[in-house]
Each structure stands twice: as structure tokens, then as C-alpha cells.
Amino acid sequence: MILLLERSENRIAILLLISAVIFSGIALRYYKIAVQSVYTETSSENRFITISAGESQGTIYDRNMKRIVNSQYNYIGVIVPKMFRAEDVINLAQNKAEFMVNFLKGRPFSFRCTKDTEESVGLTVFKIPERYSENQSARHIIGYLSENKGMDGLEYAYDSILRNGKIQNSVSYSTDGFGNVLIGDGKNVVRSMKDYTGVVTSINLEIQQICENAGKSIEKGTIIVSETETGDILALASFPQYSPENIEDALKNPDLPLINRALYSYSVGSVFKLVTACHALQNGSEHFFYNCNGNINIFGQSFNCHKPEGHGLQNMTKAIVNSCNTYFIAMSRNFKPENFRETARSLGFGREIYLCSGITASAGVLPTVSDLEIPAELANFSFGQGKLSASPMQINQLTCTIANSGKLPVMRLIKGLTTDGKTVANEKNPNLSRAISEDTAMKLREMMISAVEESTNSNAKSETVKTGAKTSTAQTGQYDENGNEICHAWITGFFPAENPKYAVTVLVEGGGYGNDASAPVFREIAEKIMQIQ
After folding, report:
1. Per-residue confidence at 245, pLDDT binned at 50, 70, 90?
2. What's the whole-number average pLDDT of the chain?
3. In 82-204, alpha helices (H)
4. Which of 74, 98, 209, 291 could serve as a FRET partner for 377 with CA atoms 20 to 30 Å apart?
């Protein structure tokens, strides 16, 4: 009996202990709530909520302060739901279903709104630049982003300038202890002005778009247009193009659209005959004549002209017009290899062209003096074959030099920076140096004009603008599945012929004959540019 009473007392004690613990927990909970309520009331004036309305990154401009990126806008509204009836504001939303879901939650939120949305106390509207447009121009100049960091092109080169500082747009409201917005305390609106700052390029957006349209038929290749007097790059288009917002597809594309082909080196071909002619003019071989019968033998090695039966008696102008290989091979036998090579180097061959960080045109390959002391190598070099390679940017620089009276320009893509979207800070003057004499340049210009105007089948010839140009069909030593050699199609030239203002270089990679693949593109660009002047 005593044992039973002891067990009952133990159970009662345990139950009382459990009850005490539960009561203490409840009491502690109510105590915390009471304390927290007091704390909230005393500190509510320091509480606030901030709603982000997107970013405004720096802008990349063309030479006329037209926006190349940030050219289109989204309109973002930040709304306080308790100040409106849903039926009065739902039509302001681009996505009405999503808007209603957030509206019914009762807390401030941001949404895509219509352009004509009007602001009020409870509704703030932001005009936010959209980084890229649907048909974005100058893609290989701009580059692209990954995780909001510049990865290529100007986005990479000027990442810190385009994305540093205050780029966020937002609205902040004071709230009470329960998170309710206190409209009576007003709101703090932060509108970023970052998109007015940025980088000013030498690009002319109208000319850029002309080139991109003219190059739609180019599967792989590039187009460059520059200003002959300054070396300013007015347009640079590389093909195939890509979407900066879909880099994954571009990486999978076997045609490698992310490559900026204006900067890569290729076999040059007959365009280089301009350099050979230049060296001859400056070294007493201006009046060299040669009778082309279709081939020439150089120490036991036969070199063929592209016309099997030959061109007959040729002077320098006729040899440029006819693009006669054997003429230039024969003439080069009179050259000292070291002097010939130096002429090529003075015209930019074998030297990189730096445009900005991460955008540098390849130096290509300029054969050494030892290479050129081998007769066959010298022969190949004279008409742009053999080890020689160059970038389209170098060929365009050569064309500028000829068109601008022998003054070689430092090619320029960046004019400077801007803080207001109106003026350029720290713009440098064009940088030119004398590469060849004015007389030599004038004679080369006349030859290039003859190559278009006197040719019976030049596809570069226009009825509306007179041009000077030289085409090229550059052998690569590579062959397709049918055993046909793959050749790059080139043309480089200037216009208007009488007073050259523009230099245009077109390369169609694997395009075959320059006159067939590149010359029509050159002609279209020249005609369209003259129309907008």
C-alpha cells in the first residue's frame, strides 16, 4: 500500500513539473511578443522597404552620339497596391496575370508597364534602357555579357566604366512594425543616370547598318569601312553574326560566329600587287614592261598566270587591271628582298593594329628576308601568295594610305568617353605618318580606278559613283570534298574616285573569285553610302 502511494505521488510530481514547464514556455512566449511589440513601436520610423526597378548600364555610342546599345526602353512601374483598386490599374501591366498575383499580396512590387503610364503618389515609373535590341547592330564590336560582366568586345574592354557606380533604379518606402507602407512619410526615388555615360566610338551607325545589310549574302567574312583622312573605322561587320543574348547557340555553331573576322589573318592574293607596284614606283621600275604568255619559270619552278594563254605585253597599269601574276613575278626579280620587305612593313604588314583592350588585329605573317632570298618565295610574295598573310584591317589601312596621298593612319575605333551623352572627353586627334610619297600614292590610285573603270567585267563598277579598287582570289592550299581549292574572295577600294573619302574592304572567306563574291558587295556599299550623304 505504501508503495502504491509513493508511485502516485511521483506521477503527480512529474505532471506538476510538466505543467510548470509548459506554463513557463507560454509565459516566456507572451513576454517576448510584448517586448517585440514595444520595440517595433519605438523603432518603426527607422524601418523601410526598397523595391528595385532594374539597372541602367553605361552606353556605347556611335560617332554622332547615337546609341548603339541602350537604344530601346522598358517601362517599369513600382506600385503600392493598397492605394489603388485592381480594376483601375490592371490595364497598365504588360503581363496582367502576373500583375494580379502580386497585387493581391498587398505589398509594393515592380512590374512591366505601358509607356504612357502616369506617375502618382503610389505609382512610380522608370524608363529603363534595354541593353540589346532585337536586331542589334555592331555585334562584333560590342561583344557580350556573362553574369552581367563584359566578356568580349567593348563590353569587356570598358566593363568597369559601363557598369561601375550607381546603376540601380529603386523606390524606398517607410514602413510600420508590421511592414505596412507609410505613404505619409513619402518615398525615396533613386533614378540612375548611368546610361548617359559611356564610350564613344568612331562608328557611323547608318554606315554600319548599310554594311550589315549588304553582307547578308556572306556566309563567312567581313566588311570594313573607314574614313581615309583619319583612319576612323566607320563600320565593322563580321559574318556570320550572332545574338549577344544567345551565346550558347553561337558557341555550338561550327561556323564560329563569335570570331571577329576583321581581326584574323588570311592569305591575301592579288591585293598585295598594290604593294609590289608601290615598291616598283619608288625604286625606278615604273616603266617595266613584260610579255605575259601564261607562265614564267623561276629557277626550274613554273608559275602560272590565271589566264592560261597569257595577257600579252603588259605595263604596270595593265598588269593591275588584268591582275597579271607573271608581270609582278618578273618585275620582283629586280628587287632587293630586304628593301621590298621593308616597303611592305612600312605599309602595315607584319604589325598588329591595336584598337582597344581585347580588340587587336593580327599582325599576320610577313616573310623574313631569308625567306625572300629564295627565288620561289620572292615570286610568291610578289603577287600575295606563299607565307604572306594579313588581316582585313591591315588591307583597309593600306587602302587608306593610298587614298590619302601616302599618309598611313593609326586605325581608330574609340573616340573617347562621355559623361552626359552629348560631349566627348579627351578625344585625341587622328594620327598619321608618311609611308609613301604623294606622287606614288596618286599613281596607285589611278591604277585602282583603271582596274574598275577600264575592266570589261568589273562587278565593282557603279553607274552612280566612280570608284577605285583591286580584287583578289587568294589561294589557301586547302581543298573541298570535290578536290577544288578553297580561295578567299577579296576586294579593297575607295570612293568617290576624284576625292576619296571612304575606304572599303570586303573579304568572303572561301568565297572564290573576288570579282564574283566581293565586288558586288563593295558596289552596293559605295552606292548606299553616297545616297545618305
Report:
1. confident
2. 91
3. 86-89, 96-105, 139-142, 153-157, 159-163
4. 291
Q: Is the pLDDT of residue 195 over 60?
A: yes
Cα dihedral sign, 254-257-261-265: negative
Instruction: Decide if 508 is inside a domain.
Output: yes
Which has the closest alpha carbon to 204: 234, 237, 236? 234
Domain span at 108: 48-83+92-201
Closest among 227, 231, 225 to 209, alpha carbons compared: 225
Res 441: pLDDT: 98
Q: Report how far residue 195's alpha carbon sits from residue 128's, in angstroms, rounded to the nearest whole number.
A: 9
- Grouping H, G, I as helix, E, B as strand and the rest as coil, residue 305 is coil
Q: State whether 162 and 190 are in the same domain.
A: yes
22 has pLDDT over 60? no
Residue 408 inside a domain? The answer is yes
Q: Does 9 have pLDDT greater than 90?
A: no
pLDDT of residue 501: 98
Regarding whether 209 and 194 lie in a shared domain, the answer is no
What is the pLDDT, as a whole number, of residue 28? 39
Q: How confident is the model at residue 30 (pLDDT cuts 50, 70, 90)?
A: very low
Q: What is the CATH number of the domain that holds 315?
A: 3.40.710.10
Contact 448, 468 (CB under 8 A): yes
Domain termination residue (choose one: 151, 173, 201)? 201
Same domain, 179 and 239: no
Q: How confident is the model over 267-289, as a mean pLDDT? A: 96
Under 8 Å between Cβ of 492 and 396: yes
Q: Which sign, positive or negative, has the C-alpha torsion 255, 257, 258, 259?
A: positive
Better-scored residue on pLDDT, 527 or 455: 527
Same domain, 217 and 197: no
For residue 103, which of 122, 119, 81, 78 has the smallest C-alpha distance? Answer: 81
> Domain check: are 61 and 150 in the same one?
yes
Number of compact structural domains in the chain = 2
Q: Give the separation between CA 158 and CA 148, rounded to whole angstroms.
A: 13
Q: Does any domain span residue 222?
A: yes
Task: Find, among 223, 248, 173, the residue nearest to 392 by Cα.
Answer: 223
